[in-house]
Amino acid sequence: MSVVRAAALLLACLGLQVGLVRLAPTSPRYVDFLVLPVLWYGIRSSQRSAMLVGCAGGLLRDAWFSAGVLGLNGFTKTFLGWVLGGLGARVDLNSGGTRLVVAAAFSVSQSALDLGLRRLLDRVTTSPDPVEWAVRAVTAGLLVAVGFPILDRVMGTAAGRSAR
Amino acid sequence: MTARSSTRTNSALLVALLAAQLLLMTLSTQREDGANVLESAVLRLTSPFARLAAAVGGGFSSAAESVRSTFAAKAENRRLERELRQASERETALREAELENVRLRRLLGMRQSLAPKSIGARVVTASLTGQSRMMVLDRGTADGVNVDCGVVAWGGAVGRVVYADARFCKVVLLTDPNSGVAGVIQRSRAKGIVKGQGDGPLVMEYVSDYADVLLGDHVVTSGLDGIFPPGYTIGRVSYVASGEDVSKVIRILPAVRYRDLEEVLVLTEPPGEGLLPPPAVESDR
Questions:
Q1: Cα separation of B163 and B43, whole Å?
Q2: Which of residues 18-47 of A touch B (CB under 8 A)?
């Protein structure tokens, strides 16, 4: 994993997220651009890269879009990066349809983990909104559908799956 | 052999990363310095990108508004299409400035009448999800903003500062599920605690079942929380009923439209009214 490329990708996703908030203030509810780097590295690269990118991406999301609990998003993205990276090493997740399903599953798992952790931390939570979760899953799938071809061009084959 | 050692290394890395995040969560919920330092570092390192993105996003927003205006003008008068397009570009910039002027004038008026010690701030970014409702402002400790400062806007109370860096601060909105503010029914002076519910309306708790509360009553800050001075509008009662215990069930529609906020006022000095004096230390003798 090239650290510079990963950092650039994370910053680009942060920029997209902040920019989108100015256009649509409620967008962070349905769109999380910072899942894209984790999915990219989880599917195309190594488990270790997915974990580290998940950790950094989650920290960015926590710092800019969350108040009160730092590390919550980092925890979920690191864990899911590990799961995805491990799965990607055993099963081919690289076909178009599979990627969409993986992205949607990643999004739903992230929402569930986030809610569970908040409750474990004794934070006051609202009951989960299935529509919100579904829309978030669909947008994650769309992000992958649109984002992966772009990343293929920008990142090239440098992030090819390694044995690690 | 290599694959096994790689799996082992990855598992160890996972445990280390998760443990670090758990530690961060614990520190941040206890408001310890370690988490603040890291959060501050992340915000500072990435703030140029975030500011740039916010500016670009704002530009696109203005452009979208401009396109809308141009199309409306086209429909009215096709003959003046070219002139209108040029005019609309200039107009967009002027309109933005004018709207900002109106908002700032309103804020200034409120500042003069209600909040003498306050500072204006712009919203850099916000998150309005069901579980977390917050915003990041472009003012920090260098401007006199500290944790637990109240934040208000045209319309009423907005939220409370929970984190302050030198240049940024994070505000938890009144609608956040973990938020609470001391409120009072303006007409009958019945006091209670107003809590957020994410997407739903605010709820007012600990109001006696015998209290006089009617639909449409205005709810304002009571000042008892030591964060907001008394008198800032919170919202209007949209539902009232007798509860199962001795408290009424009251729901409130917030007065402030959070998604439209662009500028706010941060109250840099907490109100002293309503706070109990610190307990006197008893002498051994």
A1: 12
A2: 18-23, 25-26, 28-29, 47
Confirm if B196 and B186 have CB atoms less than 8 A apart. Answer: no
Mean per-residue pLDDT of chain A = 87
User: Where is pLDDT greater, at B63 or B256?
Assistant: B256
| Average pLDDT for B255-260 | 85
Distance in Å, alpha carbon of A49 to nearest chain B alpha carbon: 10
Cα distances (Å, whole numbers) of residue A84 to A61, A62, A91, A92: 19, 21, 10, 11
Work out the pLDDT band at B214, boundaries 50, 70, 90. very high
**Contacts of residue B134 in chain A, CB cutoff 8 Å?**
65-68
Tokens 């290394």 belong to B9
The CA-based diameter of chain A, rounded to the nearest angstrom, is 44
**What pLDDT shows up at residue B92?**
63
d(CA B103, CA B98) in angstroms, rounded, equals 9
CB pairs under 8 A between A and B: 173
Among candidates A68, A121, A132 on the partner chain, residue whose Cβ is nearest the Cβ of B162: A68
Judge: A126–B176 Cβ closer than 8 Å, yes or no.
no
Distance from CA of A42 to the nearest CA of B (A): 13
**Cross-chain CB nearest to A67 (options B35, B64, B134):** B134
Which amino acid is it at B99? Answer: L
Proportion of chain A in helix, strand, coil states, percent, rounded to 5:
75, 0, 25
ipTM of the complex: 0.85
Predicted pLDDT of residue B93: 67
Q: Which residues of B touch A14 (CB under 8 A)?
A: 46, 49-50, 53
Residues of B in contact with A55 (CB under 8 A): 17, 21
3-state secondary structure chain B: CHHHHHHHHHHHHHHHHHHHHHHHHHHHHCCCHHHHHHHHHHHHHHHHHHHHHHHHHHHHHHHHHHHHHHHHHHHHCHHHHHHHHHHHHHHHHHHHHHHHHHHHHHHHHHHHHCCCCEEEEEEEEEEECCCCEEEEECCCHHHCCCCCCEEEECCEEEEEEEEECCCCEEEEECCCCCCEEEEEECCCCCEEEEECCCCCCEEEECCECCCCCCCCCEEEECCCCCCCCCCCEEEEEEEEEECCCCEEEEEEEECCCHHHCCEEEEECCCCCCCCCCCCCCCCCC
Q: Is B164 on the interface with A (CB under 8 A)?
A: no
Contacts of A69 in chain B (CB under 8 A): 25, 28-29
